[in-house]
Each structure stands twice: as C-alpha cells, then as structure tokens.
Design brief:
The protein has a six-stranded mixed sheet. The protein has one domain: Archaeosine Trna-guanine Transglycosylase, Chain: A, domain 4 (Roll). The protein contains three helices and six strands. It has about 150 residues and is of the alpha+beta class. It is about 20% helix and about 30% strand.
Length: about 150
C-alpha cells in the first residue's frame, strides 16, 4: 500500500484522536468539533495529538463519547495515549455549521469537520499550531520512512 503523504496537519486533543482512529467503525468519531470555521479545506490531513488534556477535559470528552453511545469498555486510559505528535490521517469531506446537530458526534454549538477514512500511523513527534497548518519537512520525511 502506498501511503498518500498530505502536507496539512490538524492538531486534535486526546482522547478525540483515539475516538477517530482506534474505535471500531460502528463507534468511531466522524466529526471534529471546532469553535472556528468554516474552512474551505477538503482532503487528506495528518492528525496530530495535541498537548495532554487536564483530567477535567479528559473526563468531559469521555462523557461526550458515552453520550455518542461508545461503551465504557472501549474508553482509553489517559496515561496510555500519545501526545504532541502525528498519530493518524483522515480525509476532511465536509463541514457542518453550528445550529442543528448533524451527527451524534457533532456539538451543535460548534463547526463540525466531517472526517472519513481515518487511519492510525506510527507516532512521529511534531510541533503544533492552531487550525490547519503545513507539516515541517523533517516530520514528513519521518512519516515517509515509517510508512
């Protein structure tokens, strides 16, 4: 398999990366909620696990996932998750506007970036930024070597 190597990165807090990349497909997170938008970006992008969330943020995310019908037995432990690096890739295919909830993973108070084809990749450390941004060349080289 040839791995398409996009240049674009989006930082996402854990455990949301886990929900997108590692849950069984029936439970997988299909929408990334953001308080900014909309973006015209569509296509493949890298998912970067951001900084470690506070315990309060982590447990709020678990509660949200439980409300999206994810069984507790599938929930990750905070200390088992990677942070501050590339952990997967997805395709951004649409953006839901705030207002009406469009999907069980969509927070109607935010913009919902619809993701498909989520795939985990070997961890590669990567600096972060807000919004969509270009991956540093050295990070892309490491991903290509690991693929």
């Amino acid at each position: 398999m040839t791995l398409e190597l996009p240049r674009t990165v989006l930082s996402v807090r854990q455990p949301w990366c886990f929900f997108m990349l590692h849950l069984p497909s029936v439970h997988r997170c299909r929408v990334l909620n953001r308080d900014w938008g909309p973006s015209e970006f569509r296509g493949w992008c890298w998912i970067r696990a951001g900084k470690k969330p506070t315990r309060k943020e982590f447990y709020a995310a678990l509660d949200f996932a439980e409300g999206a019908f994810v069984p507790g037995s599938l929930m990750p432990a905070l200390n088992a998750l990677p942070f501050q690096g590339i952990v997967g890739r997805v395709q951004i295919v649409d953006v839901y506007p705030p207002g009406r909830q469009q999907d069980r993973w969509h927070d109607p108070a935010q913009w919902g970036y619809v993701v498909t084809d989520a795939e985990p990749v070997p961890f590669v450390a990567c600096p972060g930024a807000q919004g969509f941004y270009d991956a540093p060349a050295a990070v892309l080289e490491q991903i290509a070597r690991a693929a």
